[in-house]
Description:
The chain is an alpha/beta fold. The chain has a single domain (about 5-145), classed as 3-Layer(aba) Sandwich (Rossmann fold), CATH 3.40.50.620. Helices cover about 50% and strands about 20% of the residues. The protein is built from 5 helices and 5 strands. It has helices at about 15-30, 55-80, 95-105, 120-125, 130-135; strands at about 5-10, 35-40, 85-95, 110-115, 140-145. Helix 1 (about 15-30) packs across helix 2 (about 55-80) and helix 3 (about 95-105) packs across helix 5 (about 130-135). It is globular, with a radius of gyration of 16 Å. It starts with a strand and ends with a strand.
Amino acid sequence: MAYQHILVPVDGSQISYSAVQHAAEIARAFNSQLSLVSLVAEDPFTDADFYYSSAIMKEYFVQAHGNAQKALKEGQQIAEAAGVTVSTKIVEGEVSAKHVVEAAQEMGVDLIVMGSHGRKGFQKFLLGSFAQDVLRSSELPVLVIKA
Length: 147
């Protein structure tokens, strides 16, 4: 199967950049389109038990968007160094597997490539697995790159 459009969620971690590298190699082999997304929470304080000012939220959004843009730029440089043209997008909303899957559907991708830290046991129980959540939520193929 030749993949036409590949999506990689990027969060600024080394494992997400490793996923970009693998996805770029696949995209180059299949002459596929490559897209990178970074998720930014619209309201990170949704379940907080305190009130916050609009100044706090403004500072959060400026910093969150800056971090997302930096992560996407670094991912873009990795893909371009591998000889692949890439598009980038910041996705606002809840930082969740659901939003990764929705972005994939909206963009018409046919493969999601993402990194996983490969946590096991109690660490996995406490921290969960974002990649595993995407696997459960998506009908698309998901390639998981382990650290």
